[in-house]
Queue: 4 jobs
Job 1
Amino acid sequence: MISLTKKERGYLGSVTRLVDEPSTTSITIRRSLFSLRLLSVAFLVTLVYQLIQRATFFTVRPNITAESVFPDLYEASVLELQDGLDKGFFTSVDLVKAYFARIEEVNLKGPALHAVLETNPKALTTAALLDEERKKKGKRGLIHGIPILLKDNIATLPSEGMNTTAGSFSLLGSIVPDDAHVVKRLRKAGAIILGKANLCEFACARGSIDSGWSATGGQTTNAYFPNASPCGSSGGSGVAASIGLAAVTMGTETDGSITCPSSHNNVVGIKPTVRLTSRAGVVPISSHQDTVGPLTRSLSDAVIVLSAIAGKDTNDIYTLAQPTPIPDYTKALNPNALKGARIGVPRKVFLNDSLTGIGYDKAARGDVVDPADIESAEELLVGLNLTVALRTDFKIELQKYFRDLVHNPSRVQSLSDLIKFNDEHPELEKLMMLLRVYR
């Protein structure tokens, strides 16, 4: 495969599109050969070789347009990216560079979405190794060489050059004992960790703060409407998936932090049943409700990732209750799955009719019961027992996370230490608040 210029690649279709026109390069070769037919054979061979090396992209596949070779990063699926990687249209190194270019365009510049906290300094090196492995041994699976963004409460070893802060300066520079278990599984499957996504600080467990706001990352905003809420603590992951800053993003949920960003950002999120994915190495709120799952552009992509990250982990005893073996969830994909189903639309409490419109095709989607209100909906809305349980778990489990760290420059080791740290360093919070208000 030849190396195309930055202009020709056009950031793999997301920034500048190549012009779809007939292959003029092959015509140039024929004219050059005709005009140089009197030259020596050796000179002709050298010239033709050089020209063909530059023209191979067009002459070998003259009917393939730039758009069909380089997928649009806004919509590119994991399967489309794998197809391009398998056929040699581009490499994982190309993908990483393209996603870095997308992040550079919109994260702190332009719309300033603040969806990404940091990128992985070793992503290109990892991508190159995986490209070489693909050539020599073939791909490991469907996410081999695919760039993935992690919510910044999912731990990665600092040797890779990234932090795990949960959006708090109290964890900046901290050293975790190991990768989170889901990260280990992603790496084993051949995924490339592209960077860390912004989040609601401590997954929105820190007081009354806006969805998607953190001290280290500022305010994440929705890509579909200026300054709109990204919703939920996985807001950075949701926004990044929605605007093509990574092929796949990872989030966590305790109560709505995957489902809400998915809804607000028009992406697909899967909140796995607690115990299906390990929480080891994830900054906790509650082991009774925390779960880790994907946010992607399509259901098929989300299921591909879920199949990769699900599995037992002795460091999270809840996962030991999983069935064996873990099923391949991609086999459950069925476009006719809702045929004959009855669908209920719970409007009371769950939907605001002045803001929400629901459209459906009864013939395609099955019978619809609208409204299908839940009698106890208002009781669920005002119930306090959940909050009491989550706050209790948070205090206990956060302390364990702090104390398991190999090193933490802030010396914070408990919830009371964390509150004291924030009280003693208001300038850190004020700085990011100013960026949020006046940017």
Note: Strands lie at 116-119, 147-151, 192-197, 213-214, 218-219, 248-253, 268-269, 291-296, 342-344, 367-369.
Job 2
Amino acid sequence: MKRLKSIAIAATLLFACFGISYFVLPGNILRRSSEDLAIKTNESSNEEVDDGDWNDDGAYSNQESLKDDDEIDEDKLKAYNLSPFEKHWPGYHIDPWMYKAVNWYPPKEKEVCLVHVGKSAGYTVACALGFPSPGCPKETNALGLLPKYTTKWFHAGLYDCFDDSAFYFFVVRNPLDRAVSAFNYGIPTSWERARKSSETYYQRLKALYFDCFDTIEQLAADGLAADGNATDTCRLRASQAIEGSTRFENHLYYNYQYHLESVPQDVRIITIRTEHLVNDWNSAEFAVGGEKNLLGEDQTLIPRINVNDSTDTEKYLSDKSRALICEKLCNEIQVYKRILTVSVNLTEKQIKESIAELRLSCPIEAQATTCGSPLPDITEKLLDNRGYSRGTVVSKFSGEISVGRTMH
């Protein structure tokens, strides 16, 4: 039997308590109290709400224009606090830590939706924004306008944003570091508990970890190297896992390309880089009209939570293995660079700074503008996981990196 991870962090225990929602459900079956229920078309809510609606093309929208000085209408406020996802899919539920009840109206032109790409400090940022994320301190001191304006959240297969939000707030990290962290995070602390969560979830993890690879180094050396000794099946799984083309570990599957193409086309993006949390929080705060230097270097607003407790062995990569994984991540790295480039709060100097940092780990891919393999067409992945209405058609894949897809 393959070696099991011996230490589970507190955040993982919270996941076990609440359930694993988007982790356990296949394809187009979204979270509900019973996992074997498929979404029904033309299903309507028993309770009618007169604020906000769904566009004819299935887009999530909050059509009421709200201003800071509007008198609070309790019915409208109640409607605003409803989950867009749950309103769109009556009877289905987001995770409890994605709820954020507010007692104000964010101005429509400043409304922000958090885009949490897994293993990029998304829960850390969500805590600072006032969401009840797993592992958050019991009391958080949310400062500035970002916590006030960021009231909805998109993570993996749970899209809980208004499509007409003014900003989409990405949290990103060096793609190689994110991939290593995601692989290690996926190693079950208990195979028995993984199986109890869901047979589908268990089989996905078993296919990558139990059947093939103990460590990220083994995946690269045995599964990606030309002289690797993994079986053909495991070699294929190694490539699929890192590229995000097949769903084994969820954070690898729901990657930068998936999240970027899931947002509405050509939206405004603000970004926090994990490596520059304080500076980027300040520039994001300023982008939505707040104070330019709200946080100092000694700030305590942004806690570090849900951090992998991986051993040095689990995180180790030889130079050869690192280069192999970087090569497989080439398209993902180009998407990461695109997110930085289109972010309205990042300067050219900051973008160059992140690319220079990336060059230390993936020098070829950091400099490249094209890759050895074409950018994958993830149209089916979007249709199966993003939560569109049945029958929704998204714009044709162009072969180029795009900010969002149009829906019709």
Note: The longest strand covers residues 150-155.
Job 3
Amino acid sequence: MNSKSNLDFGEHRWIIDIQRYLDEDTDPDESDSIKKISIFTIPKTIILTSPQHYAPQLVGLSPYHHFRIELRESEFIKIHTARRARKQHAGFKFHPLVVQLLKFDPIIRHCYDKQLRFDGETLAWMMAINSCFILQFLADQKWNSQLSRWGYDSVIRDIIMLENQIPLFLLKKTGDSLFQSSEDFLYTALMGFFEQISPFKRIKEQIEDHDILEIMDSDHILDFIYKLIVPKHEELARESTDKCDKKSISWLMPIRFIKKLVVSRPVKCIFKLFLRLIFSIPGLILFKQLEYIFFNEEKSENRDRDNMENRAVLMEEATIPSVTELWTVGVRFLAIDSGLSGIKFDGNTATLHLPVISLDINSEVVLSNLVAYESCITVGPLVLTRYIELINGLIDTWEDAKILREQGILLNHLRSDEEAAKLWNSMSELTQLTKLPFLDTVIQEVNEYYYQRRRRVRIGNLFDRKSFQSWQMIIMLIVVLMMIIVNSEWVLSLVALSKMK
């Protein structure tokens, strides 16, 4: 019976919405009449793994969570905030605002990916109170003792969750009733909120390049943050990065040619025959280590590549050595201010350029919801997701996090480097493998440099251990040379005697 009543209500709601939308001669606001679906529900399979990342814990703001039983206690706080806003702003009344929001009922419903089973008046009052709460929170983020006891960081996490969003144009409408310069206030408040909760730091130049009007046309707060973090023109960023990559790749061309020549089949056969001939000479058996260097080392390298690719498939992360592994072969890390579009690898200086990222107790929720939102709205390459995969590949243990922290790339406000590593490793469960041309090029160049340098290091260590740092080896070489000289004189003497005969 209950399911039947819900069905009847849904059909009745649908008829009302369609009649209202078709019978209106003019749209309430031409710019808002074409709002696309921008607020999505997270699949239950993901929510069950980390419900605290996607379902609000204290404040239900969107129609999806407003009437949740476990969030009932927050209703008093929101209503109290609404009354406080009415007292602080002379002339502000809720009823005129609700009447205004009623005109946007079909547009509000179209922003959500599921049908909202509320009548128009309930939805309008819900949006008026919740938008007023958000504006008051942005205006006074220190707040009163009641909210501080309630949990300031918990409110931040709930405001940023994808399922808990409300359309940004509703914040503008409510702001027009509260503030004289609502557009300026909202932009300033949102920028302050972004700088506080965004994991990406020191990208002011990138922010200033954005068109304010375009940013303010965001669908909701999470979309506002996403547009500031992810480069606007992905193709232009890729092309500019490709140019840098072509410059950095030039240093590898001679090495690649020599490598191809050395490992070619004819050269291998000739070199093996030469080594076997040398090995037959007494005293030179020690040089058999060369056979390991030029032949067995390649097998070991291929085996390591396969193991890394298998690990990447299992762990769903980018195929790239860890920070510690790169550090051992001379790769250094440089913090940059240009955001995601500035990621590159400079082969001439063996430097991987990465944006500064800050981790605190809110970062995992922010990143998880940004990645979820990107997967819902993006048809092409997933820029942020690919970056998350890259960092997942770089950070395996606390030693990796420690190196990035010491290099100024990781601003760790968690309790330890181990917690930072665990955060990134847990993010691998929330992302899917994707491709992004300019980041894939960076990963490829890092891998090529790593394996080339590791071969050099192993060869150097081998000679350091077996020859040049061993006086016994030097003495052996001198003895061998003397034996060759003596044998040569003996052979020449035999030749001379034979000619005399």
Note: The first strand starts at residue 332 and ends at 336.
Job 4
Amino acid sequence: MPLLPTIEEEGKLSWLRLMWRYRLQFQSMTAASLVFVGSGMRLAWSIFDTPAGKFSNSYGTHNLMMSWFIGAAFGALLAAIFVQRVTKNVAYTSSGFLLLVAGILNLTLPNHFSSACYSSVSVGTAYGFSQVQALVTGSEVAHKSIRGMLLSCERIFLWLGVSIQVFYTRLWYTLESGESGHTLHINQLHGVLLATLGVAAVIMTLTHRLESPLLLLRQERDMALGDTLKQLHGQSQSGTELLRLREDCRQLHNARDWEQFAEVPVDSSWYRISRRILPLLKVLFLRCFAALALSLPYNRAFLSISGHGLECDMNCLYWLAFCGLLGSLAGALLVDWQGRRKLCSLSLFVAGIVIVMVGGVFEHLESVKKTYFDINLQAIALLMLLFEIIVAAGVAVPALVYTGEAFSVAHKARCLAGILICEQALHLSLMAVAFDNHFKGSVFFFTFGGLSFTFGLLVFTLMPETRQLTLYECLLKFKKVP
């Protein structure tokens, strides 16, 4: 009779049985997921719902659209200071209260410009707090067989928030056309939903208080560590299995720095720098590429094409939001089954082919200056939707999972915060380009395609496969140069 369950026995469990077996691990992400829904709604309000019609001043509109990303970068910067030093409740309750404040501002001052900006900054800060904390805690509490699915909750619920916002906005204006008007402003409804999500996030944080085993180990709370492992991995776990889980935590906690893995003298400055910088750069470039599919230039290009190609009575961005949600769900189911590297590299190659086709058709339309309905417009809109699904499923989800696996305990929070800040800086840069009238869509798409092929090759050759590995084993994979 074997002492430990084998990987094959674990792999025979279906997704639903795995989710039920490790349900407390998913419950630990509930508060963060509610914050991600609210953040997605505000992101959609700023970008997908394009507030250009809400405020006449174009300069003010630009500031309003950028405020969410500024808040996210600020939240990540603050999260780097306290995440991994205090309980996760600090980040999640703070995020919940920030959503509550943003909701109250929208409810009381629905048409006030300064109120809208402060509300966006508040929600963005909540997102920065929660993403850093969720990736740190989620990667540390998750069993190796469902870690990818657990961490992908960030993408799923962010896109869910975007989809909810664009759906009820469309429904609101559709119903408004047949009525004399609404007693509640649509921005006030947005505020009510944000406040509700904030209160729910605070309640769920106080209800599910299971901490990261590594935080308990750092605080030398051995009894709490044993109880937490037993709850997270199921009460039916044998004593031998719990002992193995405890030793995994101790092994990861002791390997607090990259120098722990040194196979050459640690006085080699190049070796020390490579241990710290190269994994960060690998994950950063992958995350930034995935961010391009959520950027303002991509959304505006789709908006300009889909209005004629798909003949929408309003803007067609809700199709883009639903494709992002569908792709994230598919990626969550595939990332622990097919693995990270194979899924990501294949998706990048296919996405590159699709987006180069989009760029070619876009260049043709720019040269002949067609603005009426054409089969080319319909084709390009459908290809852009396909590209969104591929990137959401095969690039954004594996990139997020890699982010939670690539860094040692000592540097994880700071590395995650740095990646998120760089991601927001990229978004702000692309928005500044999109605000410029000289932006050319075909150049953007051809550049996008070239990057897709390049990153596909780099992922295939340089990124490790971390499926079904413990976090300590993931660090051993990432330690190699390149």
Note: The radius of gyration is 23 Å.
